[in-house]
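I hope you will forgive my troubling you with a question about protein structure. I am sending you one protein, given as its amino acid sequence and as whole-number tokens for its backbone shapes. Thank you for your consideration; the sequence and its tokens are set out here:
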Amino acid sequence: MSEPRVITVILNTNHRDDTLACLDSLRHTVYRTHSVIVLDNNSSDGSVDAVRGLFPEAEVVSLAHNLGYGGNNNVGIELARQRGADWIFVLNEDTILAPDCITRMVEVGERDGRIGMVGPMVYHHSEPDVIQSAGGKLGPAWEALHYGENERDRGQFDSPHDVDWLSGCSMMVRRACVEHAGALDDRFFYYYDETEWCLRAREYGWRIVHVPAARLWHKGVQREYRPSPNVTYYNTRNHFLMLAKRRAPLKVWLAAWQATLRTLTSWTVKPRWRAMHEHRNAMWQGTLDFVRRRWGMRVA
């Protein structure tokens, strides 16, 4: 019996060195029925020439427009689907994979035809044994929370387990799941799009499974990570969009609005939060843009 075909989709925007390092780790994968599509978002740092020169086995596709995480990756997801992928691995360029990462995920995914998405154990690249994400869960306001975040790996996650969502830096989706539940919603642009995608797949009856034995290291979010006002904007607007799309119950809406208004009030009236005025403005804009149904890239 032949191995399921995996196609990895990597989105690059002027991250030449990270993309090359990611591709190098993929070159050492022990999983053989595997190929790579690199989506380049108008990079000006020589990324395209470097990838084509050092990794000729990778297909490079230049994007005409920046449609954000969801819209850009959807180009690669559709190409992978057309090329007959059984599993489509949506992967950030700033990740490094263990050689058996893909093998471990496919092994678990193939155990049950109801498994629509699988994801690896994500570690901080700067702290290789500290967990960044062991899959995701929803809080009381359906905020996106990570299992095991910033915990040292002591083997506390020792077997595959169902989760609400997977980290968007590395998620492998079954082609049939995409064809049934749809691809990413490009209205989000960045943030919460992967969460909504997983929740939608679950509503369609698919299982979302985290695979601890599959290991990956992510550079982009470190323990001391401090988000920019842009992140505050997208998190605010897109959190509400996710609640609307997934028909959250009233108590969840009340919790989300209460948390947002409480934060806005603190950042406005409390002296110790005066330095957060840019985040306050971004949160106000995100809230208003949700109400106005303004999606896509933030317009300052």
Notes: The chain has two domains: 6-218, 229-292.
